[in-house]
Specification:
Helix content: 40-55%
Largest sheet: 3 strands, parallel
Bound molecules: adenosine-5'-triphosphate, magnesium ion
Strand content: 5-15%
Number of helices: 15
Shape: globular
């Protein structure tokens, strides 16, 4: 038995819109590679998405199937990976409420990802309590499934750190190793920038290329990409650092030698932005065309997608319930057993 066969993997995505290339590079690709060699759970985190979309629940609920379609279209196989919907597993909310007692408000306020997201969303002091505490619900998700490995983008590292702090506090309180610590698994692309040059491609920032994007949308997005503002004439030397087109080539062009040659040529001068963009466009069209076709095929069979989610959620719930049972017993919350 190889060491990865004992690993349990949990990741998830917020159903706030269809998934994009940032998800693919930062996390989905790793999930595909792990599939079959580990016990893997993918959680569609609708309850978490409500923490900053409470006024628009339809935005969240309508995207649950969209995210499932993205998973299936890229090759997630429900026979090898359990797909589950967070809100349909009440044990996750129950575990969240227990873990909430092992973290302070000031610790939550120090979480750098939360700080950045509060700024982006313009919450200032009007932070929904659920939003501030979503790292605790994420810790509940990870620990309920006894996950040991979490393939995520860089923005999630503070969440993993907070999860492990909670695990240690809980275990030391009850004097037993009830909850399991986890490790983040970062891909080579830890943070794919947005097409607008912003640091992170994100559903909420409107700077994403969706996995189901049409050929036209891909073309438009690549053409509008931020390059090097100083690269005015083709003959000018250009900068590749901070140049979105090259960040995308690094992430999606498997021929590293080809990328290195393009970079050298661009830096020397004599390579037009349009020429680099056309290499990237070809690559992205090639990557996304089969995903789009598969996605459209599956979208026509919504019943099957819902059935996959329902069965996966049922299976996931058993696992979460068994952890919650252990947590309650450890705390002595088992009066009638
Ligand atoms: P939202 O704006 O609603 O938060 P999002 O685009 O940030 O959406 P999430 O659902 O929060 O996406 O993230 C799901 C997973 O994808 C996380 O592991 C996250 O680290 C990863 N991820 C998201 N965007 C990127 C990105 N641009 N580069 C690398 N990884 C990413
Ligand atoms: Mg996010």
């Amino acid at each position: 038995m190889s060491s990865t066969t004992q690993k349990t993997v949990l990741t998830g995505d917020r159903p706030t819109g269809p998934l994009h290339l940032g998800h693919y590079a930062g996390s989905l690709k790793a999930r595909l590679e792990l599939q079959g060699s580990v016990e893997q759970y993918l959680l569609i985190a609708d309850a978490q998405a409500l923490t900053d979309n409470a006024g628009d629940p339809a935005k969240v609920t309508s995207n649950v199937v969209e995210v499932a379609l993205d998973y299936l279209a890229i090759g997630i196989d429900p026979d090898l990976t359990t797909l589950a919907v967070q809100s349909q597993i009440p044990e996750l909310a129950e575990l969240t409420s227990v873990l909430m007692n092992y973290v302070t408000v000031s610790r939550l306020e120090r979480n750098p990802t939360i700080k950045e997201e509060i700024r982006q969303r313009g919450f200032e002091r009007d932070i929904p309590a659920g939003f501030l505490t979503y790292p605790v619900s994420q810790a509940a998700d990870i620990t309920a499934f006894r996950a040991t490995l979490v393939p995520v983008g860089e923005d999630q590292l503070p969440m993993i750190e907070q999860t492990n702090e909670l695990v240690r506090r809980f275990n030391s309180t009850v004097g037993a190793q009830v909850l399991v610590e986890c490790a983040a698994m970062l891909s080579t692309v830890t943070r794919l920038p947005g097409t607008d040059g912003k640091a992170k491609m994100s559903k909420s920032l409107g700077n994403a290329i969706a996995l189901g994007a049409s050929a036209d949308e891909i073309r438009q997005a690549v053409r509008s990409m931020y390059t090097d503002a100083q690269h005015l004439r083709v003959s000018d030397p250009g900068r590749v650092e901070g140049n979105v087109v090259f960040a995308f080539l690094d992430a999606f062009e498997p021929d590293a030698e080809k990328v290195a040659q393009l970079k050298a040529h661009y830096q020397r001068g004599g390579l037009a932005d349009s020429a680099v963009k056309s290499v990237l466009e070809d690559r992205l069209q090639g990557l996304l065309a089969p995903i789009r076709v598969q996605r459209q095929r599956l979208a026509a069979d919504r019943g099957t997608v819902l059935r996959i989610l329902c069965q996966g959620t049922e299976h996931a719930r058993e696992r979460a319930a068994s952890t919650m049972g252990a947590v309650k017993r450890a705390l002595g919350l088992s009066y009638f057993a």
